[in-house]
Amino acid sequence: MGIVPDEAIIQFKALMDQVEEPLKRTYQNIHQGYQTETLMRFLKAREWNVAKTHKMLIDCLHWRIQNEIDNILMKPIVPTDLYRAVRDSQLIGMSGYSREGLPVFAIGVGLSTFDKASVHYYVQSHIQINEYRDRIILPSASKKYGRPITTCVKVLDMTGLKLSALSQIKLLTIISTVDDLNYPEKTKTYYIVNAPYIFSACWKVVKPLLQERTRKKVQVLPGNGRDELLKIMDLTSLPHFCTKEGSGSSQHAENATESCYSLDHPFHQQLYNYIKQQSLINEPDKPIKQGSFHVDLPEAAAEGTKIAETIESELLKFENGNGISRSASSLKIIDD
Fold first, then answer.
1. Could you give the CA distance from residue 174 to residue 105 in angstroms, rounded to a whole number?
2. Domain residue ranges in the chain
3. Best exposed site among 239, 242, 251, 328 by fewest CB in 10 Å?
4. 318 vs 261, more confident
5. pLDDT for 287
6. Taking phi first (over 0 means left), then psi (-120 to 50 degrees means alpha), and beta for anything else, what does residue 166 get?
């Protein structure tokens, strides 16, 4: 990270100390008592330019208010079967903690289909996981380890990655733009595992398009990454797709409860129950409302659009050259 520009933090903090309600309340929900660490995250996202960073954070606060993000953990996706379908097609889960105390999130890039619900449900689910991580998991980890823990690590499983169904790139670019603008620098390291040849080919052309700080976060591990990941986490925290011994293993656990993607996994059970309980506390006399929680969908930034277009172009070259049919996912590395 280099030397922290203390003066930039002091200037930025002085500006944010002037924030009044309702921005002040949602700002507190962002920093959860770790104000300096939050200011540093946003400053890094804008290359330590205080004026640009101040605009970014103020825009983020307005986005949270306009879209009622502070209340999103009171809005369960119901019925449960619909939420289970979201979980089965938007593969993400938390498998445990690194030895540093950072939450370990697993993402099934290659096998996610995003075809069981509307875009708004997937965006709602993604933001709810972000908010639960930031408001519940990270503060709890900080207390347990006695120091600020404000980031996580992500293990991206490329199992099943094939030529892209181009319609998915738009949704993934929307989600990544939400993260870029409102949850910057929340991931310390991305570990890529089970990467097929098509990923390696696309990574060569996408990597130069990423900002340097993002490129430095990405580590492509051999096979399922088990041996390398065990250097930073215990076996019990390994994502289920990394637990087989030896490289190249990418089989998912047969028992759904072993998969950290599944609604039956303790992380998702705790998350879902928490949201339902918050809903009942907020409106105890009303039935839980069905329907998605709509969030304004952002326009992709120029960098994200260029990356998406490059991925599409490269994958079409593969399709035209090899005659392979189009399928699953996108390779957008999210700079959050």
1. 20
2. 6-66, 73-274+301-327
3. 251
4. 261
5. 67
6. alpha
Q: What is the CATH number of domain 6-66?
A: 1.10.8
Nearest Cα to 163, choosing from 323, 3, 309, 333?
323
Q: pLDDT per residue over 117-162, tens digit each? A: 999 999 999 999 999 999 999 999 999 999 999 999 999 999 887 7
Q: What is the pLDDT of residue 301?
A: 61
Cβ neighbourhood burial of 18 (10 Å; 0-12, 13-18, 19+): exposed
Q: Do residues 314 and 205 lie in contact, with contact meaning Cβ atoms separated by under 8 Å?
A: yes
Q: Is the pTM of this model over 0.90?
A: no
Look at the domain 73-274+301-327 and name its fold: Phosphatidylinositol Transfer Protein Sec14p (3.40.525)
pLDDT at residue 233 is higher than 70: yes
Q: Which long-range contacts (CB under 8 A, 24 or more apart) does 40-48 make?
A: 40/4, 40/9, 40/185, 41/150, 41/184, 41/185, 41/186, 42/12, 42/184, 42/185, 43/5, 43/8, 43/9, 43/12, 44/1, 44/184, 44/185, 44/213, 45/180, 45/184, 45/185, 45/335, 48/5, 48/8
Query: Which has more confidence, 200 or 274?
Result: 274
Distances (CA, A) of 203 to 13, 95, 123, 273: 38, 26, 25, 38
- Whether 159 and 122 have beta carbons less than 8 Å apart is answered as no
Tell me if 260 sits within 8 A of 121, measured CB to CB. no
Tokens of 193: 């595992």
Length of the chain: 336
